[in-house]
Amino acid sequence: MSLxxxxxxxxxxxxxxxxxxxxxxxxxxxxxxxxxxxxxxxxEPGASTAARCSSRDRCEILTAGGRPxxxxxxxxxxxxxxxxxxxxxxxxxxxxQGNPAFTEPPVKPGVVTRCRPPFCLPLARIVGATGxxxxxxxxxxxxxxxxxxxxxxxxxxxxxxIGNEQQKTFPALPLDLAFASSRIGTNGVVEFLRALPAxxxxxxxxxxxxxxxxxxxxxxxxxxxQDGDFWPDGFVLARDQLDDVESRTANIKxxxxxxxxxxxxxxxxxQRRISVLRTLxxxxxxxxxxxxxxxxxxxxxxxxxxxxxxxxxxxxPRLVTRLxxxxxxxxxxxxxxxxxxxxxxxxxxxxxxxxxxLFGYAARVTFESQSIATNAEPSTLLQYETTVNxxxxxxxxxxxxxxxxxxxxxxxxxxxxxxxxxxxxxDRAVTALTFQPPLRTRVKGRAVLTDGRALSDAEVVAIPNTxxxxxPSPMFAQPRPGRTLTDDDGRFELEVDPGPYVLSVIPKAGxxxxxxxxxxxIPGSLTAQExxxxxxxxxxxxxxxxxxxxxxxxxxxxxxxxxxxxxTPAVPGGGAGVVPDPVEIGSAMTDSEGFVEILLAQEPR
Length: 605
Known about the structure:
The protein is mainly beta. It has 4 domains: 63-123 and 541-605, no CATH class; 126-241, Immunoglobulin-like; 246-334, Sandwich (Immunoglobulin-like), CATH 2.60.40; 341-435, Immunoglobulin-like (Sandwich).
């Protein structure tokens, strides 16, 4: 009898489901965020004009040039799938008048150009960066590695994009370096080849092992690509191009031996190696740290001498000595230091009083030396750094040379605790070191349109502000990024580390509103558990639109390229001082025809 009841129940269920499926479907909007539509009277005006209804039936700040009224950079990332310049990055600069990116070139008689600014921007052509590192026989004999005349040695070449005088903050843009390595060419010569967008670069040659022990890195500063091959002659090292050998001779001593240790010179501002890498032996070693083209760095006291242990050694610091006028190489003495000690501890939640139980959690701890103990006086010339991960209960253990350290504690995401730095003095074995970072700060804010409506469904992204004027003391841990969404009332909350941030409110795609960028300083939770930001006001946009094409006569579109716009934040009150790094104020992707539209707000602050 039970079987018919089940069948009956199944039939009844089917009837109910069938009946409910016949009910009309309640429509649900695909977009709940506010949309930019005319009329425009309630929007705040721009710098020079009021918001007006555009031909796209939305409110815009219609500027005379059809672009922002402040200087900006356009970064174009060509996709790897592109036929033209795959994986390349271009930078186009525009001042408030549109120069030079949007300047229309003069018309040439008989020449038809498919792509002309300001409505179409042609990318610069790709040029071949070719050449080699050639060594004259006279210099090869001097350095102790005889070669035939004009022998080409294998190198790794680094191309660093640089801007012109009009683009002084160009190096602060997030540009990728380009690399090339030597190979055997069709004529049997060792050479490198790299395709690069036309522009200005700094080119650095790094000879590869074993040649890096004898031939120094070479640097070409601020060179510009031409219509033909780029530096096709490469670099030639001759005897007269070696910097003064006598002043580059180092005498290095270490009582406990130097077998397997290495020495080299570093340019302090760029932290770029500029000399050969010399392997040491015995307790005293005299070596020539050859350089080329570095006389100015010597004169300006921009050099450090580095003496480092073999890479696999642990708990042994390197010696980094500042050179004044090139002096100091003749007597590099690595001091005698006490043996390393074990350091163990836990990263745990804060406790109310001493003796309370500790509840640990996963974290990462980085120890960076401030000074290292020697058998005489502590030395800041000795440097050591190591990172250790805790287990799930916050426990860690490592080995350190005795000294004073800045310990950066980075709690795992999701724990709710803030990144911080503590000073640790290690003068003996430590088995109960305890780190107790505070809670992260809960940041609250609200995004509103200047017509009074709340901006819902907007993405809020907070990234650390690493601009020079925002960098706090060295003992302040750089904060980590955060992300959230605004609710129906435009409000948002997110937990972040204390410190300076670049906070962007990014409206939902298709709503017709621009990204707005602010730069708040978030206090630590020891000062305030919560931080309330002023309302972030999102205005009617200024529309920046153009088509990207390659420089060929047919002007093929650059499809699916990521286009990002950057601008330098205005200094409050127009005061002088350190110029802030550019921040991203908008981005979009080109369509199949190479067209892109980016909606921008006012100049960031």
